[in-house]
Hints:
The complex is a heterodimer. By secondary structure, chain A is mostly helical. Chain A has 14 helices and no strands. In chain A, helix 11 (about 195-210) runs antiparallel to helix 14 and helix 13 packs across helix 14 (about 245-280). Chain B has a two-stranded antiparallel sheet. By secondary structure, chain B is mostly helical. Chain B has a single domain (about 65-300), classed as MetI-like (MetI-like fold, Orthogonal Bundle). The model of chain B has no long low-confidence stretch (mean pLDDT about 90). In chain B, strand 1 (about 40-45) and strand 2 (about 50-55) form a beta hairpin. The interface between A and B is large, with 89 and 94 residues.
Amino acid sequence: MHSGIKNPVVKIIFYAILVIWGFSVLYPLLWTLLDALKDNEQFFFNAPWALPEVPLIWSNFSYVWSKYNFDRYFINSIVVTGGSTLLGLLLSAMTAYVLARYKFRGSGALYLLYISSMMVPFILALIPLFFLMNSLGLINTTIGLVFVYASSVLAFGIFVLVGFFKSLPKELEEASIIDGASHYGTFFRVMLPLSQPGLITVGIVNVLNIWNEYIVGTILINDPKHYTLPVEIGVMQAEMQYRTEWGPLFAALLMTIVPVLVIYIVFQRKIASGITAGAVK
Amino acid sequence: MKPVSEKRQRNLFIGTFIIPTFVFFCIFTIYPVVQALYYSLFDWSGMSEHKTFIGLGNFKDMFKDPIVLRAIGNDYFLVVGKIVGIMIIATFFAVALTRFKFKLAGFFRSIFFIPNVISVVVIGVLWNFIYNPQIGFLNAFLSLFTEEKVDIAWLGFTSHTIWMLLPPAVWAGIGFYMILIIAAIQNIPDSFYEAAELEGAGQWRQFRSITVPLVWEQMKVSIINIMMTTLNGSFVIVWIMTEGGPDNSTQVMGSYLYQMAFRQYHFGFAAAIGVLILGLSLITTVVMQRLLRHETVELS
């Protein structure tokens, strides 16, 4: 029935635009990989698009890994991202469930408070947050970063999960209550497993955002021991003015990109549904 | 079980599920925001306990500070540039990948979203490399067409350098909004298009009479979303690529806030910039909602 585009010339032009844009997206990834295998000399004397010369400088990776302590930053990023995603997910699921299923005084206002907080620029809170964390002794700690990130994803999680819980049939809970289960038991044993698709969607979107987060990390962490990957990338880039180690820089970029890329490839559909749900405020 | 104790159990349950989240949220989100409003009324270096209450003094100083004015200008430049750039390209891709029946549409859709899963820091570093005067892509590419080697410092112009920050910002934003518009287009019943096709309406006609009016709501949300995320968050890419330089010419409100607070220790003044960002983004949202509603009426 659908003919799509009829004019072959227009069709070719449109196709070309798609291909060019696709190239502009994929090529930076490819060149990050290729440039991670070059030494400085090649950066200065060969064209930027030239292939790396043989022998490939695989040692850039091990150099970044051990000399720049990327082993540590990688673990820090995993711990911070995992910890804050799980904590944020638990806290938002609990509140979302109650807001979706229980009527009580102030429930509407509470929901509104969470949702409207998404409108407030995060940078506004940055300065007081710094002093708050300082007085709590949470500057330069992993747990401090976990708390702040977990708190920053609450609103989004509550928003999406309230919608999700509302879409689940009520009969299951009622049956569980009749069977004598407590409210807690019903939540943890019946509702939480049922809401897995929603939890995964929210969780994946949060993982991507937290893994990539830079500015809060930079402000709350200034001890290299606790750097996350984006924070270290920022530091490396700033240092690049004084010491030129382009190959290692690209190796570092690649190590930061690959985990999110893998997550994206695996959970593509979840991510698309997550962002669509979150953007219709 | 007596009804009273059941009610109590229910309330206890509600409490234990609501309160931890709420306390957490209050400490790490609400409290800092309220504090920021409070700090904005003080002259405070942050390092000492000593704060001087100066009322709206910071706000008065702000409008005398040419850098703040330039930052506001740059912010709105990015807002407009990103809205135009992202919306046109994202809408085109969304339509092309749904209505034009291209082969590989799914593949294109997947890869177009990739920039959105990459950290802004990484994107900033990659584009810095494109612009690098000695070894960057752009100069190397231009050198192919010239006798002498091109060595333009793309991020070093004293004016208009902000233009250089627009391509990375647009490039990084397309995929997200494309996905949103695709979702909206897919909600349009196929029968609408089939009927139009029977009437002999071409793609352009279908786009104007069916697609745009029916996804307008989503486009409106997208436009406002671009505006808000730009005012609230564009400073990260600015900070990575130029740190607001050269000579403060690419400063946006967020980057100037960051510099004032964590480089120059004018915490009160910086907090006031934060309040300005909040105020401007709320006002702009209201204004835009008005403007865009008006346009819907015209279209329908």
